[in-house]
Amino acid sequence: MNAQQHRVLVVENDPPTAMKFESVLREWGYQPLESAASAEEAIARTMREHPHLILMDIKLRGDLDGIQAAQAIREAGGHMPIVFITGYGEEYLSRACQVGFFGFMDKPIDDRIPVLKETVRTALEHYEYQQGLLAAERVRSIGYLAAGMLHTMNNLLPVCSGFLEALQNKHQNERSVEEQKWICIASRTASKAKELVEHVAPLLRGGSRELSEIKCDSLLDTVTQFMGQLSSIVAVERTPCSEPCFIRGEFTQMELLLLDLCFNAHKAMPTGGKLTLAAERCSFDPKAAEEIHKGMPAGEYVCIEVADTGCGITPEQMKRLFERGESNWGSGKGHGIGLWLLKQVITDLGGYVPDPKSVVGKGTTFRIYLPAVRVATGT
After folding, report:
1. Higher pLDDT, 17 or 182
2. Considering 25, 281, 298, 345, which has the largest number of Cβ atoms within 10 A of its Cβ?
3. What pLDDT score was predicted for residue 332?
4. Ranges 189-193, 216-220, 358-362: which has the least confidence
């Protein structure tokens, strides 16, 4: 994570001092959030904005002080480093130690700016290290959980598929066309789940997937066909490639990533709309490539596009769209890993996923850029 992605919350009851903190933070390349002047504001902002670091004054507006605010944040699960900055050092130091803090600085800070800069840098490095350890532990736990789930799914899927096949073949003349259609969709969905299990199994065993050339027309046709069966109120359109487009990757993995994007789009259109999939070969010079995504080199790419006419993504959601654990569907909706995983996989393949274009109330367009692969004629 670079400095510009680090969010810092300043909690300070004196507006000029708060503005000074925000100014130096911007100068150092960090992203200061809107400052808070009371403990209540600090707690609410922390829960809402999830800062990576808090610079906390102790004397605040209202009945609670900064130490009580820090205690409430800790009890609510906030584990980011907190640096206390106060003009009442000795009076509050013992209480602050009971809460836990990363740094404790005396005011005024005007002649201690270099010390503050180093404290902020070190605190954020410490935070990233701690988050890395937590993430590694979570991944290991998820691996054990996934292995158990995989075993269970391997036992359940043959039962589901068997009953669906029996139902499909029995009493066909007594069912309506629509009932037969839904049975076919359920059967295909079970088959898709089986493909997912087969895709994940070697990864859990420590194996790797073979990369190959993927024809984008075939990839998008498969995704379009599956999405077209899900709903009668969402129209699924597929724009054919104007010329053959090939990328390098693993077909099932790419299919699952695109399906996840399409499922998100489908959720964004609960009353109906249009989902459009397209792929196009394109070439960019250095300036054009940099405008699409910072650090993207010039060259030939295939742009895969997934567009919907749904509810759109708010600016607040957009800020953390690709962060692990963030979901743009709110609490209890979505697991917050799909878009993070999408970006990780595409990056590993040498590609880029810029922020989507979105207008609230009108829709969203995601574009994925992967290096174009030239395939000999007849291949």
Report:
1. 17
2. 25
3. 38
4. 189-193
SS3 content of the chain, % helix, strand, coil (to 5): 50, 20, 30
According to DSSP, the β-strands at 82-86 and 357-359 are unpaired
Whether the CB-CB separation of 262 and 192 falls below 8 Å is answered with no
Task: Name 361's Cβ contacts closer than 8 Å, sequence gap at least 6.
Answer: 311, 312
The answer to whether residues 117 and 107 touch, using CB atoms and an 8 Å cutoff, is: no
pLDDT band, very low/low/confident/very high, at 151 (cuts 50, 70, 90) = low
Question: CATH topology for 3-108?
Answer: Rossmann fold (3.40.50)
Structural domain boundaries in the chain: 3-108, 146-204, 212-371
Find tokens 């300036």 and name the residue.
Answer: 287
Evaluate whether 238 touches 220 at the Cβ level (below 8 Å). yes
What's the topology of domain 212-371?
Heat Shock Protein 90 (3.30.565)
What order do you get walking across the sheet with 103-106 strand by strand?
A: 31-32, 7-11, 53-56, 82-86, 103-106
Residue 263 CB contacts under 8 Å (≥ 6 apart), including other chains: none
Tokens (6 digits) for 272: 């109906």
Question: Per-residue b/e over 120-136, b at no fewer than 16 CB within 10 Å?
Answer: beebbeebeeeeeeeee
DSSP designation for 356 = P
What DSSP element (H or E) covers 306?
A: strand 299-308
Rounded CA separation 214/199 (Å): 16
pTM of the entire predicted model: 0.53
